[in-house]
Write a structure and sequence with these properties.
The protein is 64% helix and 2% strand. Strand 3 and strand 4 form a beta hairpin.
């Protein structure tokens, strides 16, 4: 048989009659009764049967089974013999535990492990590394600094193997003396950054010297760096200098410990919980040698620091070495004359002690009590003269102690009992309520302990000397604790009043806002909007003069965040008189937008109920407008999308209930306000369409004159807004959706206008669009839209002035004139999709309809002229499709496309054409053969199609398909 497409040219179309209700009943699956007592999909599957069978294969004589044979085994459980692997591990652990308890060695290991856990510092301890960056950033200077650099020595090289031991020792002692005899170079006029760079160079030199086995040189570098800690010539930089130099000491201590550890790890690694007995003699001798070297250092400060750096190495020598050494080093610090240098030496000793022996709290306490004794020196003549020379005020000088004192107190207060705080408070009183010490105590102990004694602390703060340490800093520290823990309820108002009396008198705007920002959280946490509003008014009063707020944006933002954390009822929030004036202080655009964004995020997260509160709406519109007005030509697309989502979230939460006109007025105002954000306009159109459908629901589909005018106003809103969108597919989809909404509300002329507008912009669709930053063909998107559009046209009645099927013809004309991609079948696929629509239009009763809208089925009532027009249009479309199939047949590369299109058209003829017509039946057969001619059609689909046709042929009205199906044959791919 020839498959020449020229034989398909003469076609006489006729749609087959459809009874949709009968077809629906026939397609419904048969209901099968299920006895839920025997089976339920959630009923657990028993796998005992599987276990029995596996046992039988191993020789078991048991043939009984505890599970029903009708229940299928679980394939996953069957692989596990019905045993949960987690349960197996738990059972194994439980069975091993009693056995281990009888083992002496296991008991020792468990005891050692428990001791180690007790001694170790937990994750709740704030390590020194977290404070390092803050200290370096806080204690800076513009003064010029100096540093002594180690110049090296030829005698630092290792002696020859033949040298005597005594010669080696003498040489090393001489090398240590070299450092004090001038083998160093002083660098002057260094900036702070240059100084830090030089210290880092020394750190690298230390590592390089150690790696090249020049241990004495490494020690000399550490000694030299330790000496720098005695220099207080630029006193305000001292805390940062301490941080930089102790980094080198930490490196040295780690290198020494690791070297000795390695010497003990031959041939087997040394366990973490090793004892002195596990250490070999060579390692002990090396360790002792290091301590002898350090003991030979003449100056107190480097000898103290370097020995503290290798304090952990005492573990290799004797069990109580650390316990004995800590008190000795603590006592050595008493020989340091400068109280600031001594304070940081104690801080370093506490730091090392917490790392190696946190359980030895006696030495920590002793360090602190010694520190208290040095406070008398601060007012002495020597210190005061030094401050005069360096032009440093007493309050600034006292703040230099805060990192050291805070660290020492943190170590003491770690997991300390509550009575220790009482003891510390008593000692503070004996010292005349030293403000610096009191501040460190409040910051070191647990907030719960401090909050319980908040009133006592306030009394102590009142008695402090204002000149030495400002009281507002003390209230700031107290506020931090009260933000984390609650004081007694009866004392809260008194605490707030007493604190604010001091805070509001602070003259410096920066100092004021630093303290006020802390106490805002306490106020929000325990009081109402009245107290918070009072706080905001006071902040505005202090920060507005001379535009002081411009230097305090981070603190002001923190105030907003804290308020939003505790106030989620926006009617309460916006009823604060000073909240919006507070927002007006954010004059910088980027900060202002960030604040508005944070407010919107909280609103969307916590506003559960729809709102019509005018206070909320006016405030949120103001906030959203601020975000919208920040958008300009330079704004990134991600930023626009983010802002649009926040504004959309607000719009979705606005509802005026049954006051639909007010809702529409809101959307009109929002459209004017947010015209630069396209996603917001799209959401507004959806909102108005939803409003029209809600009106229809309320009126139950029967509009009054007033509601009819209202839904037409909604349609007008959408019709005016859609053209302002830049995205062509947004416009297409919204035109179609709005047309469907108008049709559902019996607004026929508006529906026509929407659909005609959609057809008119089809030529504007570009051939490629950007999807996630990549160019993709727009054909698939366009075909999806056209198919959706065709489905809508079934229920759209013809306009009396525009002729029969004017929208269908207009769409097909646009498709005909559209510039498709080369070698594209999209146009023909549209034609194939239009045939089911036309076939559905020719039925006496349509598949679906719009209530109270007369479709063409009612307007024409099966008029022969109407049916004739449909048939002619179908024949024209089929002719166009066949011409395209002929053109594809001329190119061997297009046979797959030809087969696919032929099979699609065959499916349409089978489903919608009247195959009792011989020509149409013959066309269907030819299309089937053509689709299988080159073997590109999937056999599985072809077989299922034949089965469907045979099933249909059994229906009384479809017996003519029996002849057709006999002429449809499957052909092999070969």
């Amino acid at each position: 048989m020839s498959y020449d497409c020229r034989k398909m040219a003469a076609v006489q179309w006729r749609s087959r009659g459809r009874n949709y209700d009968t077809e629906l009943q026939r397609c419904r699956p048969e209901a099968a009764p299920v006895e839920f007592g025997d089976y339920h999909p959630l009923k657990p599957i028993m796998v005992t049967d599987t276990k029995t069978r596996r046992g039988a294969r191993k020789g078991s004589t048991s043939s009984s089974s505890s599970s029903s044979s009708s229940v299928p085994p679980d394939p996953l459980s069957s692989m596990l013999d019905g045993t949960d692997p987690l349960s197996m591990f738990a059972a194994a652990s439980a069975s091993e535990t009693p056995a281990m308890s009888h083992s002496a060695s296991s008991g020792d290991l468990g005891r050692k492990r428990r001791e180690k856990e007790e001694e170790a510092v937990g994750v709740d301890f704030e390590h020194w590394s977290s404070k390092r960056g803050e200290i370096l950033a806080r204690f800076t200077t513009t003064e010029k600094l100096s540093i002594n650099l180690f110049m090296g020595s030829d005698r630092g090289k290792a002696p020859s193997p033949g040298s005597a031991v005594s010669e080696k020792v003498r040489t090393r002692l001489e090398e240590l003396d070299d450092l004090e005899e001038g083998s160093q170079r002083e660098l002057l006029n260094l900036s702070q950054q240059d100084y830090a760079n030089r210290i880092e160079e020394l750190n690298q030199s230390l590592k390089e010297a150690w790696a090249s086995d020049q241990k004495v040189k490494a020690l000399k570098i550490v000694i030299q760096c330790s000496k720098l800690l005695s220099d207080t010539s630029v006193i305000q930089f001292y805390p940062s200098k301490f941080v930089l130099i102790t980094d080198i000491l930490d490196t040295f201590g780690r290198l020494v410990y690791d070297r000795i550890w390695t010497m003990c790890s031959d041939p087997r690694p040394l366990p973490d919980s090793f004892t002195v007995e596990d250490v070999n003699d060579t390692a002990k001798e090396t360790c002792l040698n290091w301590f002898f070297k350090i003991a030979s250092i003449r100056e107190l400060l480097p000898r103290l620091y370097v020995e503290a750096a290798i304090l952990k190495c005492n573990r290799f020598l004797n069990k109580s070495g650390i316990q004995e050494t800590l008190p000795r080093l603590t006592a050595m610090i008493r020989g340091i004359g400068d109280p600031l240098v001594a304070a940081y030496a104690r801080a370093y000793l506490c730091r090392v002690g917490m790392e190696v022996a946190p359980h030895l709290k006696d030495s920590l306490n002793c360090n602190f009590f010694d520190l208290l004794g040095t406070f008398r020196q601060i007012g002495g003549e020597s210190v005061q003269n030094q401050l005069v020379v360096q032009r440093v005020e007493a309050p600034e000088y006292l703040t230099l102690y805060s990192p050291a004192i805070s660290w020492i107190l943190q170590c003491i207060a770690y997991r300390a009992p509550e009575p220790l705080l009482t003891e510390m408070m008593e000692r503070c009183k004996k010292l005349g309520n030293n403000a610096l010490l009191l501040n460190s105590v409040m910051r070191a102990f647990r907030p719960e302990f401090v909050a319980a004694r908040a009133t006592d602390f306030i009394g102590m703060i009142k008695d402090c000397d204002e000149a030495g340490f400002p009281k507002h800093l003390l209230f700031g520290s107290l506020g931090r604790s009260l933000a984390c823990a609650d004081p007694p309820e009866s004392e809260r108002l008194t605490i707030l009043n007493e604190a604010w009396k001091v805070i509001t008198k602070v003259r410096s705007p920066q100092d004021y806002i630093n303290c006020a920002e802390i106490w805002v959280e306490f106020t929000c946490r325990h009081f109402t909007k009245r107290e918070v509003n009072t706080i905001l008014a006071d902040i505005i009063k202090h920060m507005t003069p001379d535009r002081a707020f411009e230097d305090a944006y981070p603190q002001l933002q923190s105030v907003i965040r804290k308020i939003l954390t505790y106030f989620h009822d926006f009617s309460v929030l916006f009823s604060m008189e000073r909240f919006l004036p507070f927002l007006d202080m954010f004059q910088k655009d980027s900060v202002r937008v960030e604040v508005c964004r944070s407010i919107m995020e909280v609103f969307i997260k916590h506003q559960v109920e729809l709102t019509r509160d005018p206070v909320i709406l006016n405030a949120m519109l103001h906030i959203c407008k601020t975000m919208h007005d920040s958008v300009n030509a330079l704004t990134l697309e991600d930023e626009k999308r983010s802002l649009a989502l926040l504004i959309i979230g607000f719009i979705r939460m606005v509802s005026f209930g049954r006051d639909f006109e007010q809702q529409l007025s809101f959307c009109v105002e929002a459209r004017a306000t947010f015209c630069n954000l396209e996603p917001v306009l799209v959401q507004l159109i959806h909102t108005v369409n939803q409003l029209a459908m809600e009106t229809r629901r309320v009126m139950r589909g029967s509009h009054s004159r007033k509601t009819a005018a209202f839904v037409r106003a909604c349609a007008a809103y959408s019709f005016i807004t859609i053209p302002s969108l830049s995205s062509i597919f947004s416009r297409l989809s919204l035109y179609l959706l709005s047309g469907q909404v108008a049709l559902a509300n019996q607004c026929l002329s508006q529906a026509d206008a929407f659909l005609k507008a959609a057809v008119s912009i089809l030529p504007e669709v570009p051939r490629s669009i950007s999807v996630e930053g990549k160019l993709r063909s727009s054909e698939s998107f366009l075909l999806d839209f056209i198919n959706n559009f065709l489905a809508t046209l079934l229920v759209v009645p013809d306009h009396p002035e525009h002729g029969v099927l004017y929208l269908v013809r207009g769409l097909l004309n646009m498709v005909q004139d559209y510039t498709w991609e080369d070698n594209s079948d999209a146009k023909v696929r549209v034609y194939i999709s239009a045939l089911p629509l036309l076939a559905a239009m020719s039925q006496e009763t349509y598949l679906y309809s719009v209530p109270k809208v007369d479709s063409n089925e009612t307007l024409y009532g099966g008029d022969p002229k109407f049916l004739s027009e449909i048939n002619k249009l179908c024949e024209t479309l089929i002719g166009q499709i066949l011409d395209h199939l002929k053109a594809l047949g001329r190119d061997e590369q297009s046979t797959r496309r030809q087969g696919s299109l032929a099979f699609s058209l065959f499916g349409v003829l089978l489903s919608h054409g009247d195959l009792r017509n011989n020509k149409l039946s013959q066309l269907a057969i030819n299309l089937w053969n053509l689709s299988h001619k080159h073997g590109h059609c999937e056999t599985r689909i072809s077989v299922r199609t034949l089965e469907y046709i045979k099933h249909q042929a059994q229906q009384p009205s479809m017996t003519h398909l029996s002849d057709t199906v006999q002429r449809l044959t499957l052909q092999s791919r070969t």
